[in-house]
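Reply to dn_fold:

You asked what the input looked like. This is it:
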Amino acid sequence: MTIEPTREATASAGAQIGADAAVQPRIRIRWGWFFACIALGLAAIVTGWFLVSPASRLGYVGGVLAGIGTTLLLVGVVVLLERRIIDTAVRFVANATKDARARTNAEVRAQIRDFEDRVAAIWETETTAAAADETLRMSEEFTNRVVDAYTDDDGTPSGTPSS
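and this is what came back:
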């Protein structure tokens, strides 16, 4: 006796996984903020131009260009590092989740195979009534053991926050 998922459960799980895998996260640009920052930055530069005496305007232009260059350099480095760190973290979590799921599935399958073997042995050696009673008892113990292994003390699944 083996426990197999129904066609409907497999199809719906595949549809959910396929739908999630096909949807790529969109990069959303807030154009209002983008253009407002550019306008305010240009306004500040022009305001500074008029506040500086005509004799020191050449130094002002050099300072503005140095500030813009430094800002662009830092933004570039921060954006590249942020993306690299986030991509690495996401990959690490996804791989850890996949490994944990595979380990859990293998453990449950091994427990089910062991349970099936023990039930088959009982049905071969005992009378029908005794085998039925023993199978019922073993089923309840198996269910309780599996549920206790994969839930916390308050009945919530392991890894989910309790309220």
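The first helix runs from residue 7 to 22.
Hope that clears it up.
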